[in-house]
């Protein structure tokens, strides 16, 4: 259990603390009992988010500036209640706005734009502003971009009052699944999950060649199962892994690149992927578990790529791991905090049993809270038999969920809180829970405001039909040439990713490109995954590379240098989406069966192995430029998926590995001897 839970919230003003706590309490209550309509919940969710952003990011440091900023946030929250107070009237009017409706809609839209600018900079508001201008004035444009024209009230009605604007699908997902899973991750992190993952990874691979970098890969991969934010992973696990890698000989930029690349993989690692995965499931109207299944093999291959790359880099530089005696016992770490895995296992079981992400997230969060409080109470019980009895009784109490529903967890939690207060032996657990609620609300702000603002793009696209127009134009460019269409889609994702987060990047690009890829024969989930993957890779691609710049102050290296190294580490990650398009079995799509899946996985592993060797310049020993070119050429042939390329690629791979092993027998037989 953390011993200093106040540290993360010590600098938060008390007013912000209470508003953040109220937001988390509101979201938990809505998820558990859903007493309000979906649109009202979305509106109040956005109101809370805008209020918190204006309180945390004031426009000026002067007292007057802060007061004005807080006043704007208060206006946004009060206006968000408009949908609740006048819900029946708005439903009856069905889009026929009154002057008051229009004023409320305009003010809310302006405040959402300003909140996004303060939280995320100018790029996303600028792009959304262009779409808004297109909706207002697109009728005056020449050529195919011209639309039939829409009234101002129609634009405001769509964006501020409908379910296709700022309260559209992304906000629905943000106010339900995403917020719950962010809270779930916040509770587990505060309870010591980072320590558990790091100690387990250190004990398993810390003593191997290049062990510190492998610890980064494994711990970041584990964190990705509970936290879908790549940048958050960088600034949490990176605080430990980057200095450790530097201490054992990795260059600062390479250490930062490994951490950034590993952390971004959290967004594609089931069961709790990035927010985009929930939006994708809702957009495609498929169960979330289908998205997890499609992402599983590519996610594992992504981390295999990074693990293999750091292994080769360690061999090239002759880097050893930690002394075995300095590594923690992984099983002791697991024994100490095993109970933290139960909510995660329960979450996975519920998702794979077909329950909705919202239900699964609610139960997972409830189990986490119960286990944290239960563990705190057990610490005050000296007799082992009484500890066992307590856990058995607690399990039976939680079993009441099957009979009485989610109210059971509220009753059990209240009883545990009462026991903690009566015993006065463990107050850290209560402070930890409060901190997790507050920090969870803060962590949700960038995602929530992006989901709200990106609704402008969705609303204008659906209103004007511009996606169909642009889609037809791109199809004409890539007509009959799937690779060209994929290349254009990838470049679009990477370019947009320089200025906007993964969520709006995915929504915008998938709206334009996914229908095109579907028409060219790409399965629907694969086409959306292709866009999703390159939206993530944009955070590693120069010149912006948000994850790399987040690692920069920790690694004490320029963000651009870290980005270059991240591309070197994740080079095979750029190839995986192409392989999935040409061989959908990689994402468990199509009807090829187990044979097709095994074949494409083996082929992918071969390609990853040689691509990494070519990028690093090392396999069993150093590789010259000609050898590196041959290795990359062999890997490329395995990706192309044209007639006989697989046969040539496999033959070239086997020949290359055999030739290289022949020339470096001592490294092949003793790979840890460098």
TrEMBL record:
Single GO term (MF): transmembrane transporter activity
Location of the protein in the cell: Cell inner membrane
Keyword Transport set for record: yes
UniProt keywords, alphabetically: Cell inner membrane, Cell membrane, Membrane, Transmembrane, Transmembrane helix, Transport
InterPro entries: DctM, TRAP_DctM-Dct_fused
Start and end residues of each TRAP C4-dicarboxylate transport system permease DctM subunit domain: 108-372, 376-589
GO cellular component assignments: plasma membrane
Name of one Pfam family that matches: DctM
Membrane topology classification: Multi-pass membrane protein
Function as written in the Swiss-Prot or TrEMBL entry: Part of the tripartite ATP-independent periplasmic (TRAP) transport system.
Identification of the protein by name: C4-dicarboxylate ABC transporter
């Amino acid at each position: 259990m953390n011993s200093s839970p106040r540290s993360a919230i010590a600098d938060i003003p008390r007013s912000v603390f209470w508003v953040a706590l109220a937001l988390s309490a509101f979201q938990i209550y809505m998820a558990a009992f859903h007493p309000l309509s979906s649109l009202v919940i979305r509106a109040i969710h956005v109101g809370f988010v805008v209020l918190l952003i204006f309180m945390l990011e004031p426009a000026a440091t002067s007292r007057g500036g802060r007061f004005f900023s807080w006043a704007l946030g208060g206006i946004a929250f009060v206006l968000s209640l408009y949908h609740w107070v006048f819900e029946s009237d708005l439903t009856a009017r069905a889009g026929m706005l009154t002057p008051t409706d229009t004023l409320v809609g305009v003010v809310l839209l302006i405040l959402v734009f300003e909140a996004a600018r303060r939280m995320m900079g100018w790029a996303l508001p600028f792009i959304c502003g262009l779409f808004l201008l297109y909706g207002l004035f697109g009728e005056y444009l020449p050529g195919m971009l011209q639309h039939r024209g829409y009234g101002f009230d129609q634009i405001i009605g769509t964006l501020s009052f409908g379910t296709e604007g700022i309260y559209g699908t992304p906000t629905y997902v943000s106010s339900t699944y995403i917020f719950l899973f962010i809270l779930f991750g916040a509770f587990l992190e505060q309870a010591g999950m980072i320590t558990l993952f790091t100690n387990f990874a250190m004990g398993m691979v810390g003593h191997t060649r290049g062990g510190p970098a492998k610890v980064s890969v494994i711990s970041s991969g584990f964190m990705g199962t509970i936290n879908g934010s790549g940048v958050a992973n960088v600034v949490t696990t990176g605080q430990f892994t980057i200095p450790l890698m530097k201490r054992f000989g990795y260059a600062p930029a390479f250490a930062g690149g490994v951490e950034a690349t590993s952390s971004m993989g959290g967004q594609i690692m089931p069961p709790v992927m990035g927010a985009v995965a929930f939006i994708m499931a809702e957009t495609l109207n498929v169960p979330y578990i289908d998205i997890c299944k499609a992402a599983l093999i590519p996610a594992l291959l992504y981390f295999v790529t990074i693990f293999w790359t750091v292994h080769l880099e360690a061999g090239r530089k002759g880097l050893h791991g930690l002394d075995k005696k300095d590594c923690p016992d992984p099983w002791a770490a697991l024994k100490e905090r095993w109970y933290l895995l139960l909510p995660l296992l329960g979450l996975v079981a519920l998702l794979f049993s077909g329950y909705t992400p919202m239900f699964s997230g609610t139960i997972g969060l409830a189990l986490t809270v119960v286990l944290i409080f239960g563990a705190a109470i057990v610490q005050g019980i000296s007799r082992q038999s009484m500890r066992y009895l307590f856990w058995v009784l607690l399990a039976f109490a939680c079993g009441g969920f099957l009979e009485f529903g989610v109210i059971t967890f509220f009753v059990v939690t209240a009883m545990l809180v009462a026991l903690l207060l009566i015993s006065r032996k463990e107050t850290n657990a209560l402070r930890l829970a409060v901190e997790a609620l507050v920090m969870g609300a803060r962590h949700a702000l960038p995602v929530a405001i992006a989901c709200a603002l990106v609704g402008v793009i969705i609303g204008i696209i659906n209103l004007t039909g511009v996606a169909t127009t642009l889609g037809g134009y791109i199809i004409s460019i890539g007509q009959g040439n799937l690779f060209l269409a994929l290349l254009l889609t990838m470049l679009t994702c990477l370019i947009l990713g320089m200025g906007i987060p993964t969520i709006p990047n995915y929504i915008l690009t998938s709206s334009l490109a996914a229908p095109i890829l579907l028409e060219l024969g790409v399965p629907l989930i694969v086409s959306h995954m292709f866009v999703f993957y390159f939206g993530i890779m944009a955070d590693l691609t120069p010149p912006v590379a948000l994850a790399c710049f987040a690692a920069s102050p920790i690694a004490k290296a320029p963000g651009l240098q870290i980005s270059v190294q991240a591309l070197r580490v994740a080079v095979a990650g750029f190839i995986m989406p192409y392989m999935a398009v040409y061989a959908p079995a990689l994402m468990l799509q199509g009807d090829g069966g187990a044979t097709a899946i095994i074949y494409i996985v083996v082929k992918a592993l071969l390609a990853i192995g040689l691509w990494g060797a070519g990028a690093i310049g090392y396999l069993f020993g150093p590789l010259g430029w000609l050898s590196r070119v041959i290795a990359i050429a062999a890997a490329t042939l395995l990706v192309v998926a044209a007639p006989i390329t697989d046969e040539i690629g496999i033959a070239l791979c086997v020949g290359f590995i055999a030739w290289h092993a022949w020339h470096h027998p001592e490294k092949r037989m003793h790979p840890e001897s460098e």
